[in-house]
Amino acid sequence: MAVSLQAEVRKDATKSEIKQLRSQGKIPAVMYGKQMAPTVLSVDLKELQVVLRQNPHAIIDLTISGGKGRQPVMINEIQRNPLNRQLTHIDFHQINMDEPIKTLVALEFIGEAAGVTEGGILQIQMHNIEIRCMPSQVPPSIQVEVSSLGLGDNLHVSQIMVPAGIEIKSDPNDIVVTILVPQKETETPQAANNEERVGEAETSNEAATAGQPS
């Protein structure tokens, strides 16, 4: 399912103009595709953040002012300030709805692993997988059932079930999730020595007490 986003066509700007744009709550963007020249845009930061929270890999129905109309796009690259992690620039890739695409899709883990109920720890190794399908078939997420996993078990990419028409492109041998066996608590030599010393002291005290007149 596509999500919607508004964009405005802008001209190439100087650093000061870009700074002013960001002060207005917008960030610079660019849209490009196979049969189109790159288009310089700006988008509202808050609206973009909503889209990113919903699904950063979704197909976006981008409505562009200035005669460009609506374009189906996907986010190709996000740039952030390395210090404060604020969004600074975004690249959109225009897609053809009649051609298959490759994209990342989030994994949704469902069920409670049997190994977890036995005290194990569920460790997620992969949060997304790469798939190939028609744009209209891209799911918001792919469910991964983990309830059958016991202590020490792994689930690989090859074990993930996907709907017809979707091809998984990630390495089938990659581990998606594993159930860690809990570590047994072992007594340290220092603790054992301390217990022995305490025991020796108690024995000595008992012996000394036994030798005293009552």
From TrEMBL:
The keyword RNA-binding applies. It holds the Pfam family Ribosomal_TL5_C. Residues 5-92 form the Large ribosomal subunit protein bL25 L25 domain. Residues 101-182 form the Large ribosomal subunit protein bL25 beta domain. Residues 202-214 have a biased composition (Polar residues). Residues 183-214 are annotated as: Disordered. Transmembrane segments: none annotated. Keywords: Ribonucleoprotein, Ribosomal protein, RNA-binding, rRNA-binding. GO terms for cellular component: cytosolic large ribosomal subunit. One of its GO terms (molecular function) is structural constituent of ribosome. PANTHER family: RIBOSOMAL PROTEIN L25/GLN-TRNA SYNTHETASE, ANTI-CODON-BINDING DOMAIN-CONTAINING PROTEIN (PTHR33284), RIBOSOMAL PROTEIN L25_GLN-TRNA SYNTHETASE, ANTI-CODON-BINDING DOMAIN-CONTAINING PROTEIN (PTHR33284:SF1). NCBIfam families: bL25_bact_ctc (TIGR00731). Belongs to the bacterial ribosomal protein bL25 family. CTC subfamily. Part of the 50S ribosomal subunit; part of the 5S rRNA/L5/L18/L25 subcomplex. Contacts the 5S rRNA. Binds to the 5S rRNA independently of L5 and L18. This is Large ribosomal subunit protein bL25. It comes from Paenibacillus oryzisoli.
